[in-house]
Amino acid sequence: MNLMFAGHLDRAYLLGGKPDRFRPPLTRAGSPHADAFDAYRSFFHRSAMAVALSSALVRHLDRSPPGETIVSHRGEDGRLYDSILRAELEDDALRLAKISVAAEAFSDATAEMMRLRAPGDPHRANLIHHVEGILFNVLHAWQARATLVLADCDRQVLVELLNCVIANGIALPYGIPDLRKMQSSDSRTSGVIANLEPGDYNDLNAMLEDSAIRTYQHRLSRLSEGRTVNVGILLRAALEEARRSSSRIREAPADITLTSARVRTLDTVDLDAVKIDPFKWANRKPSKPKMHIIVLSSSRSLG
């Protein structure tokens, strides 16, 4: 299983390469960045635990080289019906982000979460760039057949974006996963995992060498099977077994909720009417893949 993080989880995972990046400071009294640090520490905990318990390859992709094309649609006879420059689709992520922000797609609470940045993050808060980053990784997760992993607050970004698209008849450049019915309260698709609270990549690498973690990891290998697995039962059994074999896991808080589902994507053909289409996206013949999505939430975090 390949993982592709998006939004805050993607940024937190990359920041975790700095030693001790997410270890609590000795004193936080009066710190103006305490809330942002706590939220981003939780984002790193979630992303690192996802890696530790999946033994997954984490994909980080750069912009595509000029001239590279992708097949967006094939007919039943296998003939190519539509080929698009990959770089054009990547540019479309920014175009759709600008349209959605201009259309006031996002609630105040969601916009506030998108502006959140860890102390020392070199990237300034920007709604358009945050939405673009999520849409860019949606595209590449689809292309790479990777599992897209989001924090719950970034799941909400995609929910509100699709609600705006449907309400305003905004054409889509490619399929966007429909997460509107994906709820962490459904025991068939959700459950908890232990949080060993890593502070950086060194902690993550040490976890990967732990035999109890490898056993825990092995039990979770069926998550990518989607609808054939009761996620709640799988996660509960895996955690119980891991706690029997490791005092460290037994003492770790089980405060990360993992929701796993294979969801359909929505495209322009799913709209009742197209009213906004400045880039002629409605002329495309869309592919309609399902995507494996994992959402990680925590009761101890802002998002």
Automatic annotation (TrEMBL):
It comes from Methylobacterium brachiatum. This is Uncharacterized protein. It comes from the Bacteria.
